[in-house]
Specification:
The chain has about 120 residues and is mainly β. It is about 0% helix and about 50% strand. Strands 2, 4, 5, 6, 9, 12 and 13 form a seven-stranded mixed sheet that branches. It starts with a strand and ends with a strand. The model has no long low-confidence stretch (mean pLDDT about 95).
Length: about 120
C-alpha cells in the first residue's frame, strides 16, 4: 500500500520561500511518477509540477510557476520536494502530493493523494 504524507506548508510573505515535502511509503519509490497539485478556495484542483521516475527525473511545470518552483526527489529518503521561491498571493492554496496512476513493479496503481498542506502567501 502506497501512502503519501505532506509537510512544510505555512504562512509566508510575498516574495518569500517555502519547501514542501512528501514522504512516500513503500519500496518502489524510484519507479514512481510523482506530482504536486494545488487547490485554491472556490477553484478546481490544478497541476503544479511533475517529476518522472528516478532513471530520467524529467520534470514538467505549469506555466505560472516556471522559474519560481522546483520539483525534485531524494530516492534515499523516499521523498519528493517542491521548492517554492518568489511566492505571490495567487500561490495561496492547499498543496497536494500525488502518485500518478500507472504500472509499478508489475502492479497497476490508481491515483493516490496525500492529505494536503496549506500554503498562504500574505503580508
Amino acid at each position: 500500500q502506497v501512502q503519501l504524507v505532506e509537510s512544510g506548508g505555512g504562512l509566508v510573505q510575498p516574495g518569500g520561500s517555502l519547501r514542501l515535502s512528501c514522504v512516500v511509503s513503500g519500496s518502489m519509490f524510484e519507479s514512481l511518477v510523482m506530482a504536486w497539485y494545488r487547490q485554491a478556495p472556490g477553484k478546481s484542483r490544478e497541476f503544479v509540477a511533475q517529476i518522472f521516475e528516478a532513471a530520467s527525473a524529467s520534470t514538467a511545470y505549469r506555466e505560472s510557476v516556471k522559474g519560481r518552483f522546483t520539483i525534485s526527489r531524494d530516492n534515499a529518503k523516499n521523498t519528493v520536494y517542491l521548492q517554492m521561491n518568489n511566492l505571490i498571493p495567487e500561490d495561496t492554496a492547499v498543496y497536494f502530493c500525488k502518485l500518478e496512476a500507472g504500472w509499478y513493479g508489475g502492479r497497476y496503481y490508481g491515483d493516490r493523494w496525500g492529505q494536503g498542506t496549506q500554503v498562504t502567501v500574505s503580508s
